Hints:
The protein has 2 domains: about 1-20 and about 160-275, no CATH class; about 25-145, Rossmann fold. The longest helix is centred in the last third of the chain and has 32 residues, at about 245-275. The chain has helices at about 1-15, 40-45, 85-95, 115-120, 130-145, 150-155, 160-180, 185-205, 220-240, 245-275; strands at about 25-30, 55-60, 75-80, 100-105, 125. By secondary structure, the chain is an alpha/beta fold. It is elongated and about 65 Å long.
Amino acid sequence: MAASMTKIAGSLVSGLGADFAQIESVTVRVYVDRSCPTYLAQAVRQALVPERVSAHVEVLPLAASEAQTSTVPDAAIIVSGGNLLVGEKCAELAASGIPVAVIVESAVEAPRVAVSAEAALRINILAGTSSEAVLERLAVWLASATEKGVSCAASFPFCREALVSSLVSRCAATNAAIGAVSMIPGSDMALMTSSQIRLALDIATAYGLDSRIDRIPELAGVACAGLAYRSAVRSLVGVVPGFGWLLKASMGYLGTKVTARGIVMRIEHIKKEENQPQVVD
């Protein structure tokens, strides 16, 4: 049974492509206001320690000119202490198409920024009176601020949970919709299973693991789970006629959530094993 499930998973992955999300180069630029609270600066510094060489963190003073830099960052973070230059820097970055997060102690300290409505959408105020609160908000923002969310999670572990939560929610909603509107008998299982395999690969990549089929044994488990969900729904549809669409949608949503949790636990175990020192006899 396990071998057949592995073949099913392999066939689905081959049809979808050997790799999904590739780990891309990520550049995050941090501007530090000299008057900012020390705990905010320290929290950001400790969180933005890249785990991969493909990630780069540039730290500059608030007054630094963009003309002095040779790269365009994927995202920018301003640790604010209330300096009037914060608003100007926000406007400059947002107008250039760069997503900006301004970290402040309180929302009332948010800078006044004169920008277009389009540029304003790129500016986010992250307020928090503790390091934990600030990093939680920063993780959610960094995971969604750019199209490189998976790469950010692979490079900066503190935002993995936020990124994976977002991926799982989207996949669960998609599978719920597939279950509710599927018109061709049996087609929903294949679509849900392939969707969950994509999710497994993205989660593995977010944790910095190679996303190829020969490195992710969890895919066979995903396929098994997909078949189990389908079998459970088929037996329930006959018992509760008229509500088949609701049962399929619910199973698609809840089943994806459960499967994703199992994938995360397995990948975390793999990472833990990789970090353990090898014992040589």
